[in-house]
Amino acid sequence: MTHHNKTLGEFIINKQSEFKYSSGELSRLINSIRLAGKIVNHEVNKAGLVDILGNAGGANIQGEDQQKLDVYANEVFINTLINREIVCGIASEEEDDFIVIEGRNGKNDNKYVVLIDPLDGSSNIDVNVSVGTIFSVYRRVTPEGTPVTIEDFLQPGNKQVAAGYIIYGTSTMIVYTTGHGVNGFTLNPAIGTYYLSHPNMIFPDTGQIYSVNEGNYVHFPQGVKDYIKYCQQEEGDRPYTSRYIGSLVSDFHRNMIKGGIYIYPNTAKDPEGKLRLLYECNPMAFIAEQAGAKASNGVKRIMDIQPTELHQRVPFFCGSKNMVEKAEAFMQNA
Ligand code: AHG
Ligand code: MN
Ligand code: MN
Q1: Ligand 2 mean position to 204 CA, how many Å?
Q2: Separation of 270 CA from ligand 1 center, angstroms?
Q3: Domains, the chain, ranges and CATH?
Q4: Which SS3 state, helix, strand or coil, does residue 291 take?
């Protein structure tokens, strides 16, 4: 097989005809995201050196205030997309409101909006654990050439045209879908090129890993408590293994390769759960489904939820098909 020699750039050109509205706009958009990913990757890799390189007084060598990496990542992605005039609007987990992008002559003919979690798992940065970026792309619903409105962002996940994540891990990868399966590319940092390393990724139908923050057990709904006990029972291929990194991107990525389920349920404390529908759950759900897996809020398909607000949270059950169905059954019977 020669696919390991294929770069992301070549892959995008070859696949362009598969894109729904093949004007090249979506290709350019993904290109911008992979570029921003390289810049953020460089900064994330230096995270442990911050104090040595001059963070002592809160300012770096250039005299600029040292930024938190999630704020930095947010600016890199937003600036990259704005400067290249490649989308008409952006919504970010780090911004209160969505951003309207006016074209240079006051007119913006781009069709797509991007929703982004610029740095996911950011609390893991200080301890050298993998973090990620999650993105989601929709075609706008309001007329082209006019400023985007909230309607363009509050679309159900089943309207996504592309979604993906970048994982800044032991190696840096970009994994994405445009609705024709899922492909993963690994960055060769020496030359700054991503290579197709994981063509046509498939989520195993079942697995033996469950990923949930069990510290919150007492606050979980009964169905989730029952499912966790089921995972721990000795029978057949159980007990399962528990793995929880606390970075959704990393937990999802491992589960997609090995087979497993990720759960962030609603709790007594957070009745809607913690994860955001638009920046985290929908894009992960799209990737999961494209790889043959499932994503649910415990009762219904994540991608069929009609969002009502930008920063909406939802309970999230995502992973191997059989495992999610089992967890849903426990939710229904509780
Ligand atoms: P973010 O860093 O973007 O705020 O997201 C963190 C999320 C997600 O990545 C992770 O799975 C989850 O929060 C972990 O939450 P707990 O620490 O409550 O388990
Ligand atoms: Mn996040
Ligand atoms: Mn984040």
Answers
A1: 24
A2: 13
A3: 2-198 (3.30.540.10), 209-333 (3.40.190.80)
A4: coil
